[in-house]
Structures are given as C-alpha cells and as structure tokens.
Amino acid sequence: MGRSPVISSEIAIAASTAHVWDVITNPDYARILGNAFDKNAYLESDWELGSKVHFKYSTGGIVATGVVAKRVDRKLIQVDYNFDGMAYVEKFTLSGGDYGSNLQVFSGPHGQDFEAQKVVWKNWLQKVKELSEE
C-alpha cells in the first residue's frame, strides 16, 4: 500500500504572530473558522499541551477528538487524532514577528477526500488571514 497524501499549505499574513495565534486559539473565533471546514462546524479546546481538541457541530455534538501533542506558544500546535486505529495529525506552524507572519498547515494522511480537504484547508487559511488582518 502506498503512502497516503498529506496536505501542506501556507499563507502570508500582514499581522503579528501574536495576533494570528490569538485568532487560531481564541474561542471567540472558533465558529467563524469552523465554517471554513463545514457549516456549523468548529473546534473546541483550551489549546494547552495535553488538552483535548473536539471537532464539533453546533447541531449535533462531537465528531472527533484529538489531543494537543505539541505546543510552542505563538509558534506551533500539533493535534494528534486516532480514527479507529488510524493516526491523523494536524500541525500548525507560525513564523514571523510583529509586522507579518507566515502560517503553515500540515494535515494527514488523507484518503479519497484529499482534493476536497485541500480546498477546505485553503479556505481555513484564508479565513485566518482575513480575521487577523481586520
């Protein structure tokens, strides 16, 4: 069996890393960002190392639960999921400073939904950019 596709995507943001970090981790933005994935979807977490991350729908409860496996303030968050014995990872890396940031997302492995997930992650990155640059 071959390797499963992993998404790697990035975006430049005209905002400080501190502000971008706040947009990603602040619960006030969770539902806005979640809608980039799917209508009524959002992530719920305190984003501390070892904390649970719940992928939820406001209309139907928890769909998936991961754990913050790595966290470096204003630089990195890695969430590890286990889907019936299959490991899946989402990794967010942030670089830059006070005047601009670069946000990278790595996620996978993905199955047949790889192309659709590429679109979803690009939409999510664009929404982070919009909210951070407001």
Structure description:
With 134 residues, the chain is of the alpha+beta class. It has a single domain (7-133), classed as START domain (Alpha-D-Glucose-1,6-Bisphosphate, Chain A, domain 4, 2-Layer Sandwich). 30% of the residues lie in helices and 42% in strands. It contains 3 helices and 7 strands, in the order βααββββββα. The chain has helices spanning 17-25, 27-37, 114-133; strands spanning 7-13, 41-44, 52-57, 61-72, 76-83, 86-96, 101-108. The chain has a 7-stranded antiparallel beta sheet. The longest helix has 20 residues, at 114-133. It is globular, with a radius of gyration of 14 Å. The model has no long low-confidence stretch (mean pLDDT 92).
Topology at a glance:
Layout: E1 7-13, H1 17-25, H2 27-37, E2 41-44, E3 52-57, E4 61-72, E5 76-83, E6 86-96, E7 101-108, H3 114-133
Antiparallel strand pairs: 1-7, 2-3, 3-4, 4-5, 5-6, 6-7
Helix pairs in contact: 1-3, 2-3
Outline:
The chain has 134 residues and is α+β, with helices and mostly antiparallel strands.
At the fourth level of CATH, the homologous superfamily is START domain
| CATH architecture label name | 2-Layer Sandwich
Order of helices and strands: EHHEEEEEEH
Number of helices: 3
Taken together, the total number of domains comes to 1
From the structure above, extract its key features.
134 residues; seven-stranded antiparallel β-sheet; 42% strand; 3 helices; single chain; Alpha-D-Glucose-1,6-Bisphosphate, Chain A, domain 4; 7 strands; globular; 30% helix; alpha+beta
